[in-house]
Amino acid sequence: MFDLSGRTALVTGAGQNIGAGIARGLAGQGAHVVVNDYFLERADEVAAEISRAGGSASPAAFDVTDLDAVTEAVAGIGVVDILVNNAGLAGPTGLKAEQFRDMDPADWRSAVDVNLYGVMNCCHAVLDGMCERGWGRLITISSAAGTHGVNIGVAPYSAGKGGGLAFTRSLALEVARSGVTANTLALGLFERKNHQITEQFARAIPAGRTGWPEDVAAACVWLASEEAAWVTAQTIGINGGSLTS
Ligand SMILES: NC(=O)c1ccc[n+]([C@@H]2O[C@H](COP(=O)([O-])OP(=O)(O)OC[C@H]3O[C@@H](n4cnc5c(N)ncnc54)[C@H](O)[C@@H]3O)[C@@H](O)[C@H]2O)c1
Protein backbone atom coordinates (compact mmCIF):
# COMPACT_ATOMS: atom_id res chain seq x y z
CA MET A 1 0.00 0.00 0.00
CA PHE A 2 1.10 3.58 -0.74
CA ASP A 3 3.94 2.46 -2.99
CA LEU A 4 5.47 5.51 -4.66
CA SER A 5 8.13 3.64 -6.68
CA GLY A 6 8.71 5.20 -10.08
CA ARG A 7 7.33 8.57 -9.01
CA THR A 8 9.32 11.77 -8.77
CA ALA A 9 8.37 14.17 -5.98
CA LEU A 10 9.43 17.79 -5.63
CA VAL A 11 9.26 19.04 -2.03
CA THR A 12 9.85 22.77 -1.61
CA GLY A 13 11.51 24.22 1.48
CA ALA A 14 12.68 20.72 2.34
CA GLY A 15 16.05 21.73 3.72
CA GLN A 16 14.96 21.38 7.35
CA ASN A 17 12.19 20.56 9.81
CA ILE A 18 8.77 19.67 8.35
CA GLY A 19 9.83 19.72 4.68
CA ALA A 20 12.80 17.46 5.38
CA GLY A 21 10.45 15.05 7.16
CA ILE A 22 8.11 15.03 4.15
CA ALA A 23 11.05 14.36 1.81
CA ARG A 24 12.19 11.44 3.99
CA GLY A 25 8.66 10.04 4.14
CA LEU A 26 8.12 10.11 0.36
CA ALA A 27 11.57 8.65 -0.28
CA GLY A 28 10.80 5.91 2.25
CA GLN A 29 7.88 4.81 0.08
CA GLY A 30 10.10 4.58 -3.01
CA ALA A 31 9.75 7.99 -4.67
CA HIS A 32 12.74 9.83 -6.07
CA VAL A 33 12.65 13.09 -4.13
CA VAL A 34 13.94 16.42 -5.38
CA VAL A 35 14.80 18.35 -2.22
CA ASN A 36 14.31 22.05 -2.82
CA ASP A 37 15.39 24.85 -0.56
CA TYR A 38 16.36 28.48 -0.93
CA PHE A 39 19.69 27.48 0.66
CA LEU A 40 21.69 24.95 -1.37
CA GLU A 41 23.60 23.63 1.65
CA ARG A 42 20.34 22.67 3.39
CA ALA A 43 19.00 20.91 0.28
CA ASP A 44 22.35 19.14 -0.19
CA GLU A 45 22.40 17.92 3.39
CA VAL A 46 18.86 16.47 3.35
CA ALA A 47 19.32 14.85 -0.08
CA ALA A 48 22.61 13.29 1.08
CA GLU A 49 21.00 12.01 4.28
CA ILE A 50 18.17 10.36 2.31
CA SER A 51 20.68 8.77 -0.07
CA ARG A 52 22.78 7.47 2.86
CA ALA A 53 19.62 5.87 4.26
CA GLY A 54 19.10 4.00 0.97
CA GLY A 55 16.58 6.36 -0.64
CA SER A 56 16.78 8.28 -3.88
CA ALA A 57 17.09 12.07 -3.69
CA SER A 58 18.72 15.05 -5.36
CA PRO A 59 19.04 18.68 -4.26
CA ALA A 60 17.64 21.69 -6.15
CA ALA A 61 18.20 25.20 -4.83
CA PHE A 62 15.80 27.85 -6.06
CA ASP A 63 13.50 30.53 -4.70
CA VAL A 64 9.85 29.54 -5.05
CA THR A 65 8.84 33.20 -5.30
CA ASP A 66 10.78 33.57 -8.57
CA LEU A 67 8.59 32.16 -11.36
CA ASP A 68 11.42 32.09 -13.93
CA ALA A 69 13.71 30.23 -11.53
CA VAL A 70 10.96 27.75 -10.66
CA THR A 71 10.11 27.14 -14.33
CA GLU A 72 13.77 26.60 -15.21
CA ALA A 73 14.31 24.24 -12.28
CA VAL A 74 11.24 22.14 -13.09
CA ALA A 75 12.31 21.93 -16.77
CA GLY A 76 15.66 20.63 -15.53
CA ILE A 77 14.04 17.99 -13.32
CA GLY A 78 11.86 16.76 -16.20
CA VAL A 79 8.92 14.78 -14.89
CA VAL A 80 7.39 15.87 -11.57
CA ASP A 81 4.57 13.55 -10.48
CA ILE A 82 4.15 14.86 -6.94
CA LEU A 83 4.56 18.44 -5.79
CA VAL A 84 4.54 19.32 -2.10
CA ASN A 85 4.33 23.09 -1.58
CA ASN A 86 5.97 23.24 1.83
CA ALA A 87 8.23 26.32 1.56
CA GLY A 88 6.77 28.89 3.88
CA LEU A 89 7.77 31.91 5.83
CA ALA A 90 6.12 33.41 8.85
CA GLY A 91 8.08 36.59 8.09
CA PRO A 92 10.46 38.42 10.41
CA THR A 93 7.61 38.83 12.89
CA GLY A 94 7.29 35.07 13.39
CA LEU A 95 5.20 34.30 16.44
CA LYS A 96 5.82 37.71 17.99
CA ALA A 97 2.58 39.42 18.86
CA GLU A 98 3.21 42.34 16.54
CA GLN A 99 -0.06 43.74 15.35
CA PHE A 100 -0.78 44.46 11.71
CA ARG A 101 -0.91 48.20 12.17
CA ASP A 102 2.66 48.18 13.52
CA MET A 103 4.15 45.93 10.83
CA ASP A 104 6.42 46.99 7.99
CA PRO A 105 4.54 46.66 4.65
CA ALA A 106 7.59 44.83 3.24
CA ASP A 107 6.81 42.04 5.72
CA TRP A 108 3.22 41.73 4.51
CA ARG A 109 4.54 41.28 1.01
CA SER A 110 7.15 38.65 1.85
CA ALA A 111 4.56 36.61 3.78
CA VAL A 112 2.17 36.60 0.83
CA ASP A 113 4.96 36.14 -1.74
CA VAL A 114 6.24 32.86 -0.40
CA ASN A 115 3.05 31.40 1.04
CA LEU A 116 0.76 32.23 -1.91
CA TYR A 117 2.85 33.14 -4.98
CA GLY A 118 5.32 30.38 -4.17
CA VAL A 119 2.48 27.85 -4.34
CA MET A 120 1.09 29.32 -7.57
CA ASN A 121 4.52 29.43 -9.23
CA CYS A 122 5.32 25.81 -8.44
CA CYS A 123 1.87 24.54 -9.45
CA HIS A 124 2.10 26.46 -12.72
CA ALA A 125 5.48 24.93 -13.54
CA VAL A 126 4.39 21.30 -13.03
CA LEU A 127 0.75 21.38 -14.13
CA ASP A 128 1.02 21.05 -17.92
CA GLY A 129 3.17 17.93 -17.59
CA MET A 130 0.85 16.36 -15.01
CA CYS A 131 -2.25 16.99 -17.14
CA GLU A 132 -0.56 15.67 -20.29
CA ARG A 133 0.49 12.48 -18.48
CA GLY A 134 -2.93 12.20 -16.83
CA TRP A 135 -1.49 11.77 -13.33
CA GLY A 136 -0.37 14.20 -10.67
CA ARG A 137 -0.52 15.06 -6.99
CA LEU A 138 -0.42 18.61 -5.65
CA ILE A 139 -0.18 19.02 -1.89
CA THR A 140 -0.04 22.42 -0.22
CA ILE A 141 1.13 22.81 3.36
CA SER A 142 -1.00 25.47 4.97
CA SER A 143 -1.73 26.35 8.54
CA ALA A 144 -4.45 26.81 11.12
CA ALA A 145 -3.47 30.46 10.73
CA GLY A 146 -4.84 30.22 7.18
CA THR A 147 -8.09 28.50 8.15
CA HIS A 148 -8.82 30.14 11.51
CA GLY A 149 -6.42 33.03 12.10
CA VAL A 150 -5.40 31.58 15.48
CA ASN A 151 -2.65 33.91 16.71
CA ILE A 152 -2.31 37.64 17.16
CA GLY A 153 0.59 38.99 15.12
CA VAL A 154 0.39 36.78 12.04
CA ALA A 155 -2.26 38.47 9.87
CA PRO A 156 -0.14 38.68 6.66
CA TYR A 157 1.02 35.08 7.21
CA SER A 158 -2.64 34.06 7.61
CA ALA A 159 -3.45 35.86 4.37
CA GLY A 160 -0.69 33.99 2.54
CA LYS A 161 -1.61 30.62 4.05
CA GLY A 162 -5.33 31.16 3.46
CA GLY A 163 -4.57 32.22 -0.10
CA GLY A 164 -2.50 29.11 -0.78
CA LEU A 165 -5.31 26.97 0.58
CA ALA A 166 -8.05 28.68 -1.47
CA PHE A 167 -5.91 28.57 -4.60
CA THR A 168 -5.21 24.85 -4.19
CA ARG A 169 -8.87 23.99 -3.62
CA SER A 170 -10.02 25.97 -6.65
CA LEU A 171 -7.26 24.58 -8.85
CA ALA A 172 -8.31 21.07 -7.82
CA LEU A 173 -11.64 21.57 -9.58
CA GLU A 174 -9.96 22.62 -12.84
CA VAL A 175 -7.75 19.54 -13.03
CA ALA A 176 -9.99 16.91 -11.42
CA ARG A 177 -10.75 15.22 -14.75
CA SER A 178 -7.08 15.11 -15.75
CA GLY A 179 -6.02 12.59 -13.10
CA VAL A 180 -4.50 15.34 -10.96
CA THR A 181 -5.53 15.80 -7.34
CA ALA A 182 -4.87 18.91 -5.24
CA ASN A 183 -5.24 18.96 -1.46
CA THR A 184 -4.13 21.05 1.47
CA LEU A 185 -2.85 20.08 4.90
CA ALA A 186 -3.63 22.74 7.50
CA LEU A 187 -1.07 22.27 10.26
CA GLY A 188 -1.43 23.05 13.91
CA LEU A 189 1.56 23.77 16.12
CA PHE A 190 4.81 21.90 15.52
CA GLU A 191 7.97 21.57 17.61
CA ARG A 192 9.92 24.77 17.83
CA LYS A 193 13.30 25.61 19.26
CA ASN A 194 11.66 28.01 21.71
CA HIS A 195 10.36 25.42 24.19
CA GLN A 196 8.63 28.03 26.32
CA ILE A 197 6.26 28.77 23.44
CA THR A 198 5.93 25.07 22.63
CA GLU A 199 5.07 23.95 26.17
CA GLN A 200 2.64 26.77 26.71
CA PHE A 201 0.72 25.99 23.52
CA ALA A 202 1.14 22.19 23.76
CA ARG A 203 -0.91 22.11 26.96
CA ALA A 204 -3.93 23.34 24.98
CA ILE A 205 -3.63 20.64 22.27
CA PRO A 206 -6.12 17.78 22.91
CA ALA A 207 -3.58 15.14 21.85
CA GLY A 208 -1.19 16.55 24.46
CA ARG A 209 1.78 17.22 22.21
CA THR A 210 2.95 19.41 19.36
CA GLY A 211 3.24 17.94 15.87
CA TRP A 212 6.20 16.07 14.42
CA PRO A 213 7.40 16.17 10.80
CA GLU A 214 6.46 12.47 10.58
CA ASP A 215 2.80 13.38 11.20
CA VAL A 216 2.80 15.52 8.06
CA ALA A 217 4.91 13.06 6.07
CA ALA A 218 2.39 10.25 6.64
CA ALA A 219 -0.46 12.40 5.34
CA CYS A 220 1.62 13.41 2.30
CA VAL A 221 2.44 9.78 1.52
CA TRP A 222 -1.26 8.92 1.56
CA LEU A 223 -2.33 11.93 -0.55
CA ALA A 224 0.48 11.22 -3.03
CA SER A 225 -0.53 7.59 -3.44
CA GLU A 226 -2.59 5.83 -6.09
CA GLU A 227 -5.03 4.90 -3.31
CA ALA A 228 -5.95 8.57 -2.73
CA ALA A 229 -7.04 9.14 -6.35
CA TRP A 230 -10.58 10.16 -5.31
CA VAL A 231 -9.46 12.57 -2.60
CA THR A 232 -9.24 16.07 -4.04
CA ALA A 233 -10.09 19.70 -3.23
CA GLN A 234 -9.88 18.86 0.49
CA THR A 235 -8.30 20.64 3.43
CA ILE A 236 -7.24 18.26 6.18
CA GLY A 237 -6.23 19.45 9.62
CA ILE A 238 -3.04 17.90 11.05
CA ASN A 239 -3.28 19.41 14.49
CA GLY A 240 -3.75 16.88 17.31
CA GLY A 241 -7.43 17.82 17.55
CA SER A 242 -6.81 21.51 18.16
CA LEU A 243 -9.43 22.72 15.71
CA THR A 244 -12.41 20.59 14.83
CA SER A 245 -14.42 22.86 12.54
N1 LIG B 1 6.25 24.97 12.33
C1 LIG B 1 4.94 25.13 12.57
O1 LIG B 1 4.46 25.10 13.73
C2 LIG B 1 3.99 25.27 11.42
C3 LIG B 1 2.63 25.42 11.69
C4 LIG B 1 1.75 25.55 10.63
C5 LIG B 1 2.22 25.54 9.32
N2 LIG B 1 3.55 25.42 9.09
C6 LIG B 1 3.99 25.44 7.69
O2 LIG B 1 4.77 24.27 7.46
C7 LIG B 1 5.79 24.56 6.48
C8 LIG B 1 7.15 24.16 7.04
O3 LIG B 1 7.32 24.83 8.29
P1 LIG B 1 8.70 24.70 9.11
O4 LIG B 1 8.40 25.06 10.51
O5 LIG B 1 9.37 23.40 8.79
O6 LIG B 1 9.51 25.91 8.44
P2 LIG B 1 11.08 26.23 8.51
O7 LIG B 1 11.20 27.73 8.49
O8 LIG B 1 11.75 25.48 9.59
O9 LIG B 1 11.62 25.65 7.11
C9 LIG B 1 11.19 26.20 5.90
C10 LIG B 1 12.24 25.99 4.85
O10 LIG B 1 11.77 26.65 3.66
C11 LIG B 1 12.83 27.34 3.05
N3 LIG B 1 12.31 28.47 2.28
C12 LIG B 1 11.78 29.62 2.79
N4 LIG B 1 11.47 30.44 1.79
C13 LIG B 1 11.79 29.80 0.65
C14 LIG B 1 11.71 30.15 -0.72
N5 LIG B 1 11.25 31.36 -1.09
N6 LIG B 1 12.12 29.26 -1.65
C15 LIG B 1 12.60 28.04 -1.27
N7 LIG B 1 12.73 27.67 0.01
C16 LIG B 1 12.32 28.55 0.95
C17 LIG B 1 13.71 27.81 4.20
O11 LIG B 1 15.05 28.06 3.76
C18 LIG B 1 13.60 26.64 5.18
O12 LIG B 1 14.64 25.70 5.01
C19 LIG B 1 5.65 26.04 6.17
O13 LIG B 1 4.87 26.21 5.00
C20 LIG B 1 4.93 26.60 7.37
O14 LIG B 1 4.21 27.77 7.05
C21 LIG B 1 4.45 25.30 10.10
CATH homologous superfamily annotation: NAD(P)-binding Rossmann-like Domain
Name every ligand kind in the structure. Answer: nicotinamide-adenine-dinucleotide
Backbone CA Rg? 17 Å
If classified by CATH, what would the architecture be? 3-Layer(aba) Sandwich
Strand order in the largest sheet = 3-2-1-4-5-6-7
What is the strand content? 15-25%
From the spread of the alpha carbons, the general shape counts as globular
Instruction: Domain count, please report it.
Output: 1
Question: Low-confidence parts lasting 5 or more residues at pLDDT below 50?
Answer: none
Structure description:
There is one protein chain. With 245 residues, the protein is α/β, with parallel strands linked by helices. It has one domain (8-236): 3-Layer(aba) Sandwich (Rossmann fold), CATH 3.40.50. It has helices at residues 17-28, 40-52, 67-77, 105-133, 144-148, 155-175, 195-202, 213-224; strands at residues 8-11, 32-37, 56-61, 82-85, 136-143, 180-187, 235-238. It has a seven-stranded parallel sheet, sandwiched between helices. Strand 4, helix 4 and strand 5 (136-143) form a beta-alpha-beta unit. Helix 1 packs across helix 8 and helix 4 runs parallel beside helix 6. The protein is globular. The protein starts with 7 loop residues before the first strand and ends in a 7-residue tail after the last strand. The mean pLDDT is 93. The structure holds nicotinamide-adenine-dinucleotide (NAD). Nicotinamide-adenine-dinucleotide is lined by residues 12-13, 15-19, 36-39, 42, 63-65, 86-89, 114, 118, 141, 143, 187, 189-190.
